[in-house]
Fold Aspartate carbamoyltransferase.
Amino acid sequence: MSELSVNHLLGIKYLKEQDINLIFETADHFKEVINRPIKKVPSLRDITIANLFFENSTRTRLSFELAEKRLSADVINFSAASSSVKKGETLIDTVNNILSMKVDMVVMRHPNPGAGVFLSKHVNASIVNAGDGAHEHPTQALLDSYSIRERLGEVKGKKVVIVGDILHSRVALSNIFALKLQGAEVKVCGPKTLIPKYIEKLGVQVETNLKKALNWCDIANMLRVQNERMEISYFPSTREYTQQFGVNKEILNSLDKEIVIMHPGPINRGVEITSDVADSDQAIILDQVQNGVAVRMAVIYLLASKIKQ
Ligand code: CP
């Protein structure tokens, strides 16, 4: 397979396993490029990309911008807080105004699930979903699987537990789709109130005992509790959440084996993960961030190749 089966990256659920393999092979090449003294290639000199962020971001926004610049694309950045969206402009009007400036690709983060799919049907540009509400965050799942492959050789056959607020997490859903597509086994672990009822239909098992989940897995992906998406309390207190679902050195040392710890960020230190774990050699959190640039370069490069045809 030499090209993606899709024209947009809207979610992992639209990809085939071969798409993921192609993205990873391309990312391997770009990872080598960004470790050279001159970290740039001229591949996308004729492409203009708009990064539209309607929701806060540190890692994803900077990682996409760097990936685009490493590929020599022209880049414009938009943040909702300082835009005319505040004056009542619709999403389609905002994006069409930006596209009239001859933009080829839109990378968008939006609080509403499905915003990227909606946009792809109404505007003439390649759309990359950089996180849409509690729905999907496809490039995060790709960089997570790429980091597992880098640390453990392959994703197929690996046992991954995703711990925390599964209900509000786009990272969890995209990771489940990506991991299952590549032949990994997946469990989720967290308070019952933060695990969606449909989860087992995705071929995922539920384990509410953290120690059992950690003893089963090769990799634990620790998620933050997304208080900003909660209108009610889903557990009695943060202290009790940490006691039951927080990972610390003591629990890791009590396991039969050494597991790999992941976290998509931002971390709430001392809540879902202690600092001594987050900063240990067992954790690949900063590798995930570093790999994000190469993986996003691969996604943008492969989608841009389809625009150019
Ligand atoms: N992992 C992630 O999406 O982080 P940001 O919200 O900082 O982009």
Remarks:
- The chain has two domains: 12-135+290-307, 138-288.
- The chain has eleven helices and nine strands.
- Residues 285-308 form the longest helix (24 residues).
- The first strand starts at residue 48 and ends at 53.
